[in-house]
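User: Let's play a game. I give you a shape written as tokens, and you guess the letters that built it. Ready? Here's round one.
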């Protein structure tokens, strides 16, 4: 099993980050996709063996009423056609544009983070099935991070059916589905401080235990808290045997 460690975004800037890590999950791609030439510059600046995971554009997963749309540069029309994997031309366009950035960055995983308002209603489940069964994947793996009142059995069933990876925080959720790849996003959620939580050495030992409990050949651990770089470095340097 290989454990891959990185941060959600570049907390210290790209050049410094590239010196310490071989993995990042892009966050800016969620709010608004970069121009292709910008993504190409990222790829060229990164070391040859550096890996990008791409967080999919919010137009796919989040409705236009989401406050995250404040960071969207373009003005969109027909706002009801966005979010929740709806079967609209707008959402399929958003995926194709996301896929283009994934290809430029040579990403292996695209991450779909859903808001808590995306509940396990039949319409939402039908939208997911239509979306993941329709879109072009190329060689990408897909990781899905549900929030809200999704039961682990339902997550497991959908992930198996749609060939996607459940993206979880192992401090608050059980592993819902075993596959060759596990994807952990670490939000500091075990504390009321959440994003402002700093992981302790004991926390990192627990995380390593959870990595080893998976049956995955590779485990992605992406830190997404205020001290993400420091915590990720500490975990990266821990003996894994």
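Assistant: Ready! My guess for every position:
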């Amino acid at each position: 099993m290989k454990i891959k460690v990185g941060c959600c975004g570049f907390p210290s800037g790209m050049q410094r980050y590239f010196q310490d890590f071989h993995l990042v999950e892009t966050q800016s791609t969620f709010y608004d996709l970069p121009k292709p030439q910008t993504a190409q510059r990222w790829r060229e600046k990164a070391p040859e063996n550096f890996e990008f995971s791409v967080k999919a554009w919010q137009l796919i997963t989040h409705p236009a009423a989401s406050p995250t749309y404040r960071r969207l540069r373009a003005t969109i029309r027909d706002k009801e056609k966005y979010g929740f994997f709806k079967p609209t031309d707008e959402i399929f366009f958003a995926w194709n544009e996301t896929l283009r950035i994934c290809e430029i960055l040579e990403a292996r995983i695209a991450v779909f983070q859903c808001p808590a308002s995306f509940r396990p209603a039949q319409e939402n489940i039908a939208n997911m099935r239509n979306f993941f069964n329709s879109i072009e994947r190329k060689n990408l793996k897909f990781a899905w991070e549900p929030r809200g009142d999704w039961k682990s059995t339902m997550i497991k069933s959908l992930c198996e059916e749609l060939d996607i990876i459940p993206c979880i925080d192992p401090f608050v959720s059980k592993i819902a589905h075993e596959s060759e790849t596990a994807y952990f996003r670490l939000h500091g959620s075990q504390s009321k401080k959440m994003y402002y939580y700093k992981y302790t050495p004991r926390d990192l030992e627990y995380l390593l235990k959870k990595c080893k409990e998976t049956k995955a050949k590779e485990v992605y651990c992406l830190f997404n808290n205020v001290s993400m770089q420091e915590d990720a470095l500490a975990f990266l340097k821990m003996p894994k045997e």
